[in-house]
Write a structure and sequence with these properties.
- This protein is an alpha/beta fold.
- It folds into 4 domains: 171 residues, 3-Layer(aba) Sandwich (Rossmann fold), CATH 3.40.50.300; 62 residues, Helicase, Ruva Protein, domain 3 (Orthogonal Bundle), CATH 1.10.8; 115 residues, Zinc Finger, Delta Prime, domain 3 (Up-down Bundle), CATH 1.20.272.10; 139 residues, DnaA, N-terminal domain (GMP Synthetase, Chain A, domain 3, 2-Layer Sandwich), CATH 3.30.300.
- The strands form 2 sheets. The chain has a 5-stranded parallel β-sheet, covered by helices on one side. Strands 6-7-8 form a 3-stranded mixed β-sheet.
- α5 links the parallel β2 and β3.
- α14 crosses α15 and α20 crosses α23.
- The longest helix has 21 residues.
- It starts with 5 loop residues before the first helix and ends in a 10-residue tail after the last helix.
- 33% of the residues are buried.
């Protein structure tokens, strides 16, 4: 007896067996129950997510001979149901749109559609990859789709709905099939293995399910290949040997070397992966996947449902995530993704991959300026550590006493009673802010000046060229810290308002729509006081400006 591959053997036979597309199955069941079955459907989605399977289930439900009318539970035993499962039913015609895409083929379809079905209730046309039809073939379908015979139903399936002309789509009920989650695929693979009586290890299921990329058919096909190797029990180690899956421990080792700024170790880890048979593109994809998991851990925690990892993998990844910050991971992921497309067409793919990995290991983490300034506020001139954790809830407590502050070099300030007094003492106020709140905050205020003080509201103006500094002063509770400190030297509580000074603002608006010379934005950013503050504190120089 001929062997039946798992993807065919375990194909869903009824609406309740469909995995991952339950909303669509329920909608079609309701349409059958209420007698509201449309004359044309368009099923869209990536390969292997159940489009053709759902089309066959719907065809069986409409034509099942075991009942006197359409049913939501086809028997799968009558002649009609069996023939539909085999793709051989005379009243359910399956057409490959890729090889039958001419206008002549569609004309034949129209000529045959007028004849009633031989034995079933409906004559059903299932056209797979319908987007492959020519424009003239699509146009030939329009008339019969608009006014079809009562005994005809059309079910179109496509992976590229954007290529199906709008006039066809408007005549169909469209259902978008989603990618199936790795968790559901793993659950189905487990059920198949148990039903087949094949021994396996639990750590096999999730990596194999992730390799399927949302396609149940691909997942079952990969499992078929693994079973064909003839090794039991099936384990995650076999994925590397027989399916070319990256070894998770080797990938983790590479990411760990990047986190440790170990360039030599990272190159050795890359070489180890290449020697295991992986291409440079596969290594880049594996890095993106692993760093994505670290990014999720840093953002949502190790217990997040967004992670498809075993408990041991979660613990390992959580520990490794401590070596990174979110900004670095975001940069690395986007940089590797850009690199991946270059690697596919490069004759020097290995050198490009290694250069990028060395860049990640030797460079400081890529943080946004606001995060760097937060770190600067808590340091007294020391170098910023690459992996120093940043607390986003940190606030600076300002009091009128001497606790927690070194005020030996702090300038004496008089009582700030009016705008003139504040203006004349502004530089000294900035020195106090530098001592108490950090050089970063003082640097942001470096180009500002008091422009108004009335009823306890202090207005601080920034030139238009320092818009970045103004916005950063408004973020992360920094404005509240500044007004709390200034209140200590006034007669009562002070509120502050940050604004862009009028003259320069109007001038900026006047030229905002004019063409900018090359390098204008880069120069504007480099000359911003906030950026200069970061450079001074880090002792750094700018090597390039990249917009992400």
């Amino acid at each position: 007896m001929a062997y039946t591959v798992l993807a065919r053997k375990y194909r869903s036979q009824g609406f309740d067996e469909v995995v991952g597309q339950e909303p669509i199955a329920q909608t079609l069941k309701n349409a059958i129950k209420t007698g509201r079955v449309a004359h044309a459907y368009l099923f869209t989605g990536t390969r292997g997510v159940g489009k053709t399977t759902m089309a066959r289930i719907l065809a069986k439900a409409l034509n099942c001979l075991a009942v006197s009318e359409p049913t939501t539970e086809p028997c799968c035993k009558c002649d009609s149901c069996i023939a539909v499962n085999l793709g051989e039913d005379i009243d359910v015609i399956e057409i490959d749109g890729a090889s039958n895409n001419s206008v002549d083929e569609v004309r034949k379809l129209r000529e045959n559609a007028i004849y009633r079905p031989a034995r079933a209730r409906f004559k059903i046309y299932i056209i797979d990859e319908v987007h492959m039809l020519s424009t003239s073939a699509f146009n030939a379908l329009l008339k019969i789709l608009e006014e079809p015979p009562s005994h005809v139903k059309f079910i179109f399936a496509t992976t590229e709905p954007n290529k199906v002309i709008a006039t066809i789509q408007s005549r169909c009920q469209r259902f978008d099939f989603v990618n199936i989650s790795p968790g559901l695929i793993a659950k189905q693979l487990k059920a198949v293995l148990e039903q087949e009586g094949i021994k396996y290890e639990e750590d096999l299921l999730l990596p194999l399910a992730k390799m399927a990329n949302g396609s149940m058919r691909d997942g079952l096909s990969l499992l078929d290949r693994l079973i064909s190797a003839g090794t039991e029990p099936l384990s995650a180690g076999l994925l590397e040997e027989f399916l070319g899956c990256p070894n998770s421990e080797k990938v983790r080792n590479l990411v760990e070397k990047i986190g440790d700024s170990d360039a030599a170790g990272a190159l050795a880890a890359t070489n180890d992966l290449i020697n295991s048979g992986l291409s440079e593109v596969q290594i880049a994809e594996a890095l993106v996947d692993y760093m994505r998991d670290l990014m999720v851990i840093k953002s949502a925690g190790a217990e997040s449902e967004l992670l498809m990892l075993t408990s041991e993998q979660r613990k390992s990844a959580d520990k490794l995530a401590e070596k990174f910050d979110v900004a670095a991971l975001v940069y690395n992921i986007t940089a590797i993704e850009k690199l991946r497309w270059t690697l596919k067409n490069s004759d020097t793919a290995r050198a490009l991959l290694e250069a990028s990995i060395v860049r990640f290991t030797l460079s400081e983490h890529f943080m946004n300026i606001d995060t760097l300034l937060q770190q600067l506020q808590g340091q007294s001139g020391g170098a910023i550590k690459k992996n120093q954790p940043v607390s986003h809830n940190t606030t600076v407590k300002a009091t009128s006493g001497q606790d927690n502050f070194n005020t030996d070099n702090q300038p004496a300030l008089p009582k700030l009673t009016d705008l003139q007094t504040i203006k004349s003492n502004w530089q000294n106020i900035l020195k106090v802010i530098s001592e108490r709140l950090g050089k970063g905050t003082a640097g942001l205020l470096g180009t500002s000046e008091p422009t108004g003080f009335e009823n306890g509201l202090l207005t601080i103006g920034f030139p238009a060229s320092a818009e970045v500094s103004k916005k950063m002063c408004e973020n992360n509770g920094r404005a509240e810290q500044i007004q709390s400190l200034i209140s200590e030297f006034c007669q009562g509580p002070v509120r502050i308002k940050l604004e862009t000074t009028g003259g320069e603002q109007r001038q900026a608006e006047a030229v905002s729509n004019q063409p900018r010379p090359a390098g204008y934005r880069d120069n504007q950013l480099i000359n911003d006081p906030a950026v200069k503050t970061v450079l001074i504190e880090l002792g750094a120089t700018i090597t390039g400006v990249e917009e992400i």
